Amino acid sequence: MSDLMSGAWGLFLSAFISSTIAPGGSEVVLAYMVSQGQYPIGYLLTLAVVGNTLGAMTTWWLGCLAAKKYPVASLLPEKNQKALRVVQEKGLWILFFSWLPIVGDAFCFAGGWLKLPMIPACLLIFAGKLSRYIVVVWAFL
Q: Residue 77 belongs to what domain range?
């Protein structure tokens, strides 16, 4: 049973880390675990989505902290400057696309920097991550 639990927590940690500034491959971990059939699909999906959303909200929170210390956007790296402009133009709804590689983390950081409302931001991030992981699960059933 402990091997099963460590695998599940491995998925959660992979999803969390994949959604912060560090790169990761939680989709691969989820796909593998779905294909093995050792866990209920709903359990795996929940672990991946919650872990990934919490990681994204950590990045959002880091954006909030950075905005307090460094209020001038020109101090941001180029990737985050572009994301900041996109989030300013598109608004809160762009956070649905936080699952996208490369720019998704920057969207979350920019959302925090711009102090977008936390609850709607979290719900949109959650919805985007859930959508992506449902596709991964469906592809590997």
A: 2-139
